[in-house]
Amino acid sequence: MKSTVEQLSPTRVRINVEVPFEELKPDFDKAYKALAQQVKIPGFRPGKAPAKLIETRVGRGAVLEQVVNDALPNKYAEAVQTSEVKVIGQPEIEITKIEDGTELAFTAEVDVRPEITLPDYSGIEVTVDSFTIGDDDIEEQLTSLRQRFGTLTGVERAVADGDFVSIDLSATVDGADVPEAATTGLSHEVGSGQLIEGLDEAVIGLNAGESKEFTSTLVAGDHAGKEAVITVTVQSVKERELPEADDEFAQLASEFDTIDELKEDLKGRVERVKKVEQAGSIRDKVLDALLETVEVPLPEAVVKAEVDAVVHDAVHGFDHDDAKLAEALEAQGSSREEFDKDTQEAAEKSVKTQLLLDAIAEAENTQVGQQELTERILFQAQRYGMSPEQFIQQVQQAGQLGAVFADVRRGKALAGVVGQVKVTDSEGNVVDTTEMFGDPAESAEIELDEAAAE
Q: Do 103 and 12 belong together in one domain?
C-alpha cells in the first residue's frame, strides 16, 4: 500500500491511498464467506459455495462493494499510522479509483492536531486575589453548624425571612390553569431562592391561611418561558431555633470539648476552602494567560461538532422546537443570536484549550498513573451520585474512558505549568504554588522512576 499526505491547512490534511488488489485478498475471502451465508445455491450448504458461483449469482459488483466496505476502515487506519499524522475527528473518505484486479485508490480528508509553539512558562506572570480569615468567616461556619442542630418550632405570626413554611401553589397563563405548576403542602425555606422567582418576596408578611398573587416566568413544562400569575397560600409557619454556641454545643456537634477549640478547627476549614478557591483562580488565570499567549489554529469541523452538540442538547430540552427555545431565551433577557454567538465562542475556547493542553502534555511527557485515574473516576462518580462501578460501566459503554484519561492528563499538564509561572497576590506577595499543585521537579523525578520500574 502507498500513501501520501497533503497539508490543506494547519489543521486539515488529505491522505491519498493506493492499495494493490493483491493486498485485498483477505478482504475478498471475508466477502465471499459473508455472501456465501446469504446466498442459497442449489447443491451447496450455506457458506460452502465456491467463489465463482457466488460471483455468478450476485455479480462482481456486489463482491467489490463488500470488499471496499470492509477494507476502507483498516486501510485508512494503516495510512494514518504510516504517515504519523495526529488525526482528530472523523474523516471524509472519497473513492477515486477502482480498477478491478489492479488497484483501489481513495482519499481521506481529516482534521489533525496543529503544530503549536509553546512559550517559556517562566516568563508568564499572573496575579490573584489575596485572602484573609476574619471573625465573620468563622461565625458564618459556626452558624451553619448550629443550623444543622437547630429545631423547628411553629409560630403564630407573619412569615419572616429565614422561616420554614408549608405552602400551596397554583398558576395560570392567560387565564388558563397550569396543572403541572400546582402543588400542595410544599415545604420551603424563605429566602433560599430555591423555588419560583418572586416567591420569597410574596410570602413575607403573610400569616397562616393567607394568600397572595404574584407574576413570575415558568421555567419548565409546556409553558416554559411564559409569564404566569402565581397564587401562593401559606398553610403553616415555623422558625428555626439555634442551640447556644457554648462548650456543651461543641461537645454535641464535634469531637472538641470547648467552643474555642471548635472555632479554631473551623478557622482551619475556612483557610483550606480559601486556598482551594485561590488555587482554582490561579489555574484559571494561568490557562487564560496561555490562551492569550499561544497561537492555536482551530479545526473548523471539530469546533462545529461541539457547537452542534450543544445546540442539539438545548433544542432537545424543548422537544426539538426552535421556537420554544427562542421564547425561553427571550424570557431570560437573551436571544437565539446571542445564544449561538456564545455557543460558538465557548466551543472555540474549549477546543483551543484541549489542543493547547494536549500539546503541553506531549512536550512535557506528562504521564497519568492508575491512582490518578482512579481518583478522578471516584470524584466524578460521587459528583453524579453514582457508585464507581456504575460510573465506569456507563463511561465504558459510551466509549468515554479515553476522554476521562485525557482530562486527567490535561489537568496534570496545566498543574505542571503553574509550577513554572510567577504567581503573586493582590498585595504583591509571591504565592507558593507547590502546596496546591505539587513540585514540578519532584513530579518529573517520580515519573522517571515509574518509567524505569516499568
A: yes
